[in-house]
Amino acid sequence: IIPIETHWSYLSGREQVVEVNGSLSQVKPMSCGIPQGSVLGPLLFLLYINNMKDACSCHLFFYADDSTPLVSHKSKTMLETILSTKLTNIRIWLGDNKLFLHLGKTEAISFVSRPKLSRSSEIRVELRGEVLTTKTSICRVGVYIAAHKWMLHVTLWVGYVAFF
């Protein structure tokens, strides 16, 4: 068997059924997607989104199906403009590749140097008329990242370890 045929057989001929309140939907063919929970799923997904970084021309960090763009600039106004543009480019790339950007799960965080802490470091980023949620801390792969210091991560982990 040719390798591409093996992959095709893995992805084709699948069906789905949805259960809601004990009622089953009709069986529908699956024409796209990767089997959830499969061994090859993460690798195939990473291959699928591998060129997303070309769409935004910025650093992208990936973990599972989560992607995080990293953008920097000395000017807050320019940072907001650049980030909005990059996110628009990512959204277009996702649409072209039959994926979508979940705005409800999309967050922004701003890191600034100590001399700039006295000024507002909160950024305002709009995408399709919606303002993204700006956070002072986020959690990525179990690491809590705060906008100004690591104390949040240390405090949470000390409490977690003390529990055991």
Explained architecture:
The protein is α+β, with helices and mostly antiparallel strands and 164 residues long. The chain has one domain (3-163). It is built from five helices and twelve strands. It has helices at 3-11, 41-49, 52-56, 76-96, 151-163, and strands at residues 14-16, 19-20, 23-24, 28-30, 59-63, 66-70, 107-109, 126-127, 130-131, 133-135, 137-140, 143-146. The model has no long low-confidence stretch (mean pLDDT 79). Residues 1-132 form the Reverse transcriptase domain. This is Reverse transcriptase domain-containing protein. InterPro entries: DNA/RNA_pol_sf, RT_dom.
Structure in a nutshell:
By secondary structure, the chain is an alpha+beta fold. It has one domain (3-163).
Q: Give the class from helix and strand content and strand pairing.
A: alpha+beta
The biggest sheet, with number of strands, parallel, antiparallel or mixed sense and barrel status, is: 2 strands, antiparallel
In percent terms, what proportion of residues is strand?
Answer: 15-25%
Instruction: Provide the gyration radius in Å.
Output: 20 Å
Topology as a string of helices (H) and strands (E): HEEEEHHEEHEEEEEEH
Fraction in helix: 25-40%
Brief descriptors of the model:
two-stranded antiparallel sheet, 23% strand, globular, two-stranded antiparallel ribbon, 164 residues, 5 helices, 12 strands, alpha+beta, single chain
Topology at a glance:
Layout: H1 3-11, E1 14-16, E2 19-20, E3 23-24, E4 28-30, H2 41-49, H3 52-56, E5 59-63, E6 66-70, H4 76-96, E7 107-109, E8 126-127, E9 130-131, E10 133-135, E11 137-140, E12 143-146, H5 151-163
Parallel strand pairs: 7-10
Antiparallel strand pairs: 1-4, 2-3, 5-6, 8-9, 11-12
